[in-house]
Specification:
It contains two helices and no strands. The protein has a domain of 32 residues. By secondary structure, it is an all-alpha fold. It starts with a helix and ends in a 16-residue tail after the last helix.
Length: 55
């Protein structure tokens, strides 16, 4: 196996791990919050003022 082939394999494995993590996170979020809450989470006007303290 060449170095390039080994790096390609590592890249594919890393991308598979990231994809699995994204799916797992999507499932966790969907279980914790209902769909209506997720849709309405970013209502217009909820953003903090520019330069203001977000807390």
């Amino acid at each position: 196996m060449t170095v390039a082939r080994g790096l390609e394999l590592v890249a594919w494995l890393l991308s598979a791990v990231i994809a699995g993590w994204l799916v797992l996170d999507m499932v966790r979020v969907s279980r914790r919050h209902d769909e209506q809450t997720l849709i309405n989470a970013a209502e217009p006007g909820d953003e903090p003022a520019p330069g203001g303290d977000p807390r």
